[in-house]
């Protein structure tokens, strides 16, 4: 419920890529389908941060190659509760977001749902902004959420 109105998100949760299949991770089909992207890495896992960087670059490339797609992107550093295991600084995350024209949040999905809620509220605002500025003509069809970069590598922790 946002501003007294029900909002329905369709989320296309990408699978975690092996390096060799990275090119297929976010496909042109997904790009056309999505109204916005949430790219997630773990602040405890530097390799997931590198994958997030590659994903952001890929999304930008595909968008440039495509039509006038202006779907907003938000970069999320997850597992903020695990400060003692931090491997990626907040500054690095913020810089990457700045350099790719993305929003940025650090959250802990495990602690409460509030962080994720803030991310999706922001994404909704950005999608609405891009629509009202006439850069995006279609409705909310979905969100590609690339969560796999966060969890795919260290499932035993
Ligand atoms: N400490 C901590 N653990 C988390 C957090 N978010 C997720 N986890 C843990 O990370 C592990 C993987 O989480 P999942 O929700 O399965 O991740 P996923 O994105 O579905 O993973 P894939 O199926 O590989 O795409 C689980 O053990 C979660 O409890 C967090 O913010 N903090």
UniProtKB/TrEMBL annotation:
SUPFAM superfamilies found in the cross-reference section: P-loop containing nucleoside triphosphate hydrolases
Reactions that this protein is recorded to catalyse: GTP + H2O = GDP + phosphate + H(+)
Keywords noted in UniProt: GTP-binding, Hydrolase, Nucleotide-binding
Pfam families for this protein: Ras (PF00071)
Transmembrane annotation, as ranges: none
SMART domains: RAB (SM00175), RAS (SM00173)
Keyword Nuclease recorded: no
EC number: 3.6.5.2
PROSITE patterns found in the cross-reference section: RAB, RAS
Record has Hydrolase as a keyword: yes
Gene Ontology terms for molecular function: G protein activity; GTP binding
Membership in a protein family: Belongs to the small GTPase superfamily. Ras family.
Protein's recorded name: small monomeric GTPase
Source organism phylogeny: Eukaryota, Metazoa, Chordata, Craniata, Vertebrata
């Amino acid at each position: 419920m946002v501003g007294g109105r029900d909002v329905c998100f369709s989320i296309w949760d990408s699978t975690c890529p092996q390096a060799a299949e990275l090119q297929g991770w976010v496909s042109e089909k997904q790009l056309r389908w999505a109204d916005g992207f949430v790219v997630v890495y773990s602040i405890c896992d530097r390799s997931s941060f590198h994958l997030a960087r590659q994903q952001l670059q890929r999304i930008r490339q595909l968008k440039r190659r495509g039509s006038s797609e202006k779907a907003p992107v938000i970069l999320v550093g997850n597992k903020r509760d695990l400060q003692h295991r931090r491997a990626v600084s907040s500054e690095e995350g913020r810089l990457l977001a700045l350099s790719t024209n993305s929003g940025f949040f650090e959250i802990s999905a495990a602690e409460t749902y509030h962080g994720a809620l803030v991310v999706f509220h922001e994404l909704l605002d950005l999608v609405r902004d891009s629509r009202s500025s006439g850069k995006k003509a279609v409705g909310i069809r979905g969100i590609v959420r690339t969560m796999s970069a966060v969890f795919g590598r260290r499932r035993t922790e």
